[in-house]
Amino acid sequence: KRKSMVCKTALKAGVSFAAINYRYRYRSFSDFNNPERAALQDILRDCGRAIQFLRYQAKEWNIDKTRIGAYGGSAGAGASIFLAFHDDLAVPNSEDPILRESSRLTVAGMMNGQFTYDLTKWAKVLGPEIEDIHSDFEFYYFYGLKTVEELNSEKGKKIRADIDMISHITKDDPPVFIFCSNEDNPTENKGDANHHPKHAMAIKKKCDEVGVEAKMLLPKVSGETEILHKEELLKFFFKHLKVLIGK
Q1: Which of 15, 21, 174, 237 is in Cβ range 3.0-4.6 Å of 10 for a Cys bridge?
Q2: Which phi and psi angles does 87 have, rounded to 5°?
Q3: Rounded to an integer, what distance in angstroms lies between the CA atom of residue 73 and that of residue 46?
Q4: What is the mean pLDDT of residues 188-193?
């Protein structure tokens, strides 16, 4: 496949680039309630395992374990900031050598992502209209649960807290690049809800409060429509990965 500009620029600068995949929660709306699909918290750990696998292969693939970043759009953005803010997923005494590796990042990028995957909290940030937009979604299916009662049980609360990315932000977390391409308009559909700039604003606000470096670009909110966000993403990543250009 044709390489993206970010990938080509990274490779030219001597930075290894990996694209990962993960299990899907659902492939179509008709498949949404399929209980055999992976739960959201397990999907995020698929992404964590990808980082751990890269570290496991570091010697063979000539990767610096101490300089690893991740970014993505939408679900990839959520996964990236989950890994940025969550405690290390490493299990030092695991029989699986991959799981002994760290999942922590040096830098992360959030492009049109979400501030939390505790979906019950979205209305507080996006507004009460989100409840009508998502009224046909049974939130508990996202987490591999079967009833509303399970969602609100101690088990459900523990799952939701685990993937509530914004609540995990602490001062020792890596810097984040935050971008959203949408306008700050009322949410009218699921696309608006999933990719609203208020997600980005919420993460930036919390980062500022706790002292995590966060650069945010919202061109359709600020009016700076000429911002080249991919170039800015690369600058931010190269700075924190300590990439020396043209050495």
Answers
A1: 15
A2: -60, 155
A3: 17
A4: 86
